[in-house]
Hints:
By secondary structure, this protein is an alpha/beta fold.
Amino acid sequence: MGLCQLKPRRRSRGPHLAPPDGLSGPLGRGQVRRLMGESDHWRVHPGKDLHLGQIDAGSAPGAPGDRIATESVLPSLQTELSELQARLWAEGRRSLLVVLQGLDAAGKDGTIKHVFLGVNPLATRAVAFKEPTPDEASHDFLWRVHAHCPAAGQIGIFNRSHYEDVVAVRVNRLAEPEVWQQRYGLINAFESILAHGGTTTIKIYLHISPEEQLRRLDERRERPDKRWKLRPADWDDRKHWDEYQVAYQDALKRTSTQIAPWYVVPADHKWYRNWAVSRILIDALTRMDPHYPG
Ligand code: AMP
Ligand code: MG
């Protein structure tokens, strides 16, 4: 994944403002209801309250079975995703942006590695956002993000994103409240611009428990093959667990929209997380219903 080879566009891109939820095209009513239902376990509904503390990070709603059974369906989901991606790429008009957020060790890297195993690297653009560089920080907070959004036909994967600018920035007091508070509205406007240009945005919060995070951070400390992932700041961030939960809760509530919904995926079990994220993405692409140009 990474730098892409841009394909010539077949038709001009956008405006593509889809009906609510991106539902369009030839899907029948029953099919639409079924698809919405499948991702509904995790969806944050606009206007409804959200309490992350009440969602069991170790739960597995909707899973096809236990760990073994759920893991056994993953290869077929990888194939399904790759087939949908082939159509999106061939169509060359629209794109899917997948935003992954979560606390340290929530499993963002692992999700990308497992869920996107079968995708075409040419048609994929993955980027991890770190603390802004001086150059990035000298622009508005969306500047660096917009530059990495997927081109027509691509799936874009964000490991962290502009949501750090309302979460990490808030918890670490890197900006005044008036500044980060205004960003919810700016983010919603930005994601509308993406939709207008043909990009469907799907945002996934990987929800882990403090106990599971501790176990994973300890494992990173102990194992040489994992130690490189551990930053001293991870332990400091952990001390602000409750503040992060509140910041995420507010961000998810304020920015889960019809065109760019949030999904909260219980992520203590990696096997469940991989299955749930795969399902959400397959549902989103199925709703987009990309076609081979004919
Ligand atoms: P990691 O993803 O574990 O490599 O860590 C990256 C770090 O960069 C995390 O602590 C993020 O919170 C931080 N980060 C990413 N984007 C921003 C941002 N816009 N402002 C402040 N911190 C950020
Ligand atoms: Mg980290």
